[in-house]
Specification:
The complex is a heterodimer of chains A (294) and B (274). Chain A has eleven helices and two strands, in the order H-H-E-E-H-H-H-H-H-H-H-H-H. With 294 residues, chain A is mainly alpha-helical. Chain B has 274 residues and is mostly helical. Classes of the chains: A mainly alpha (294), B mainly alpha (274). Chain A: Pfam families: DUF8171.
Chain lengths: 294, 274
């Protein structure tokens, strides 16, 4: 982790440039894919969900974290808010999954000119995103969250459909619009796009061992964030009373689903404590700034 | 059929760009545009949660109608409305299809209606708000509410730049088409055409990335010369920048009307559930 950070050290304004670049490019591409018609053959949809190659290339060339955050924000702002397609709480799931996927993919690339690493990163990146959302979707049926149990045949068909759509996504989004363009465009952009942002290209020859960046901290945060994403999506899909403060909140879960409610409570509590902590700290800073100005 | 043909003939890049411009640089005259942006953000947050709190059909229909009226008053572009309708329909067709095909019953169709209403209510509310709010105000409101400065800047920048980016992308595509040659035969299932256009869409991002990188750097450096990062960190500078955001009488009136409508919708819903 440390060596990667040293290797890709960015100044404050460069971080912002990378963030804005990734956000606007991915937002634009997402808008294009929204408008493109999709072909449906029966229930299976053949469409491009996003141009995966854009964040993948940028994550390989620049700092993966800022690229990943930028791409997710661009997705929400342009495809969500501007196009009026905002999913509410369910949007958290997509945000976390996509950020994680691109971040991990970016970490996997140590040498942006190495085709093997790029290919692995592209497939792993899209794979993580699609796999997580498929797991969450199947989980919804598994735990009976969607409340369609009464309809015979639906749970089984959803599992089958999700499996097929995962494969379909991996081929179209992952390979055709992820792997192939990444392999073609990264070597072309390497050394050209970095000077435009006022930085040196990454050194191609830096050797970092795999263990250096897959730290326990990263794995831990992946697990925790995936869990948060799952709970958010379940709650959004369960179509239920969100009155966290009332005792009825837990009561509306079936016995084997109570853990979803308790987890939502825990996440909310941690979030509130964090916000309060930040707020207290900010007030302190505020005072200091005033003293400075005076 | 003719309705669809009419719609798709209007669906050109030029039109989409104009619609987006309208969304981004909303008209000042609409009732929602005169509100304090913080009020709008709060309102849209509340209204994107409320529909999920109930199963009562009357309440859901009432809320959807209310947001539809607001969307109409804010002159949301018809393109977005049509995209919303297509989206809502296509989101649920496959579920219903699967259920009727495998389970042989229409129960799923009825189970899906409330969810569709909730989704459209939330979408209408967000569209109304974001059509009425210009990017500058939106980012200032976010900043005032304690969102990190980098994020709020990025949002307003992207919001502003998007129409320009779309235009640039379009002109790159045009130049590719001028220099390239469309396949003579469509091939099996238009495979050759699809390949030709898909490749163009991807390859066009190569010059696009370089141009955007250059533009981003120019903007960020111009901002840094004016001490942009410092103003975002320093609270005194922030107060100066955000001083114009004030809740006025009009905001209170809007709040009162919203509360009144929501309350009456809920009362009707409780008294006459569908």
């Amino acid at each position: 982790m440390k060596s990667i950070n040293q290797e890709r050290k960015l100044t404050q304004s460069q971080k912002m440039m990378v963030f804005v670049l990734s956000m606007s490019l991915f937002g634009l591409s997402k808008m294009i894919t929204e408008i493109l018609p999709s072909n449906e053959v029966g229930p299976i949809e053949f469409s491009i969900s996003y141009f995966a190659f854009i964040p993948l290339i940028l994550a390989a060339l620049f700092h993966p974290l800022y690229v990943a955050l930028g791409a997710s924000v661009g997705n929400i702002v342009f495809a969500g808010l501007l196009m009026g397609d905002f999913g509410g709480i369910g949007e958290i799931e997509g945000f976390i999954e996509f950020t994680l996927a691109i971040y991990v993919a970016g970490l996997l690339v140590r040498n942006p000119l190495n085709k093997m690493q790029l290919a692995v990163a592209a497939l792993v990146g899209v794979g993580i995103d699609q796999l997580l959302s498929t797991i969450v979707d199947i989980g919804k049926v598994w735990f009976g969250v969607e409340g369609f149990d009464a309809v015979p045949g639906l749970p089984e068909s959803i599992v089958v459909l999700e499996g097929v759509s995962f494969l379909n996504e991996m081929i179209i989004t992952g390979v055709l619009f992820g792997l192939i363009p990444t392999l073609l465009l990264t070597p072309k952009l390497y050394g050209k796009i970095e000077p435009l942002l006022g930085m040196n290209p990454r050194k191609a020859k830096v050797q970092v061992s795999v263990g250096a960046y897959i730290t326990p901290g990263l794995i831990f945060s992946i697990v925790v964030l995936t869990f948060v994403a799952m709970i958010a999506e379940f709650i959004a899909e369960m179509d239920m009373n969100l009155a966290f403060w009332s005792g009825d909140f837990i009561a509306q879960f079936a016995d084997d689903q109570k853990w979803i409610g308790y987890s939502a409570w825990a996440i909310l509590a941690v979030g509130i404590i964090y916000v309060i902590f930040k707020f207290v700290k900010k007030n302190k800073n505020n005072k200091m700034d005033l003293d400075e100005a005076a | 059929m003719s309705v669809f043909q009419k719609f798709f003939s209007k669906l050109t890049v030029e039109n989409i760009k104009i619609e987006l411009m309208r969304t981004a640089y909303g008209n000042e005259q609409t009732p929602l545009a005169r509100l304090d942006p913080r009020m709008l953000i709060l309102w849209v947050l509340v209204y994107s949660i409320i529909p999920w709190l109930t199963h009562n059909m009357t309440i859901l229909i009432g809320l959807t109608l209310f947001t539809a009226v607001l969307a109409y008053l804010s002159r949301v572009s018809p393109l977005l409305i049509i995209l919303l309708i297509i989206g809502v329909i296509s989101q649920f067709t496959y579920l219903v299809f699967a259920a009727t095909f495998l389970g042989n019953s229409y129960a799923a169709l009825i189970a899906v209606i409330p969810v569709a209403l909730k989704v459209s209510c939330v979408s209408l509310a967000t569209m109304a708000v974001f059509t009425s709010m210009d990017p500058e105000k939106f980012s200032d409101a976010l900043l005032k509410m304690g969102v990190p400065g980098k994020f709020s800047f990025g949002v307003s920048y992207g919001y502003r730049m998007l129409p320009i980016l779309i235009e640039e992308y379009q002109s790159i595509i045009h130049s590719f088409r001028l220099r390239g040659k469309q396949p003579e035969k469509p091939g099996f299932l238009y495979v050759r055409y699809i390949y030709y256009y898909a490749k163009m869409c991807v390859v066009a991002f190569y010059p696009m990335m370089l141009n955007t990188a250059k533009r981003t750097r120019t903007t960020v450096e111009a901002l840094e010369v004016r001490g942009f990062s410092y103003t975002l960190e320093n609270n005194v500078a922030k107060d100066l920048k955000l001083g114009y955001l004030k809740m006025k009488k009009y905001d209170v009136q809007f709040l009162a009307i919203t509360l009144l409508v929501t309350a009456s919708v809920y009362t009707t819903g409780v008294l006459m559930p569908l």
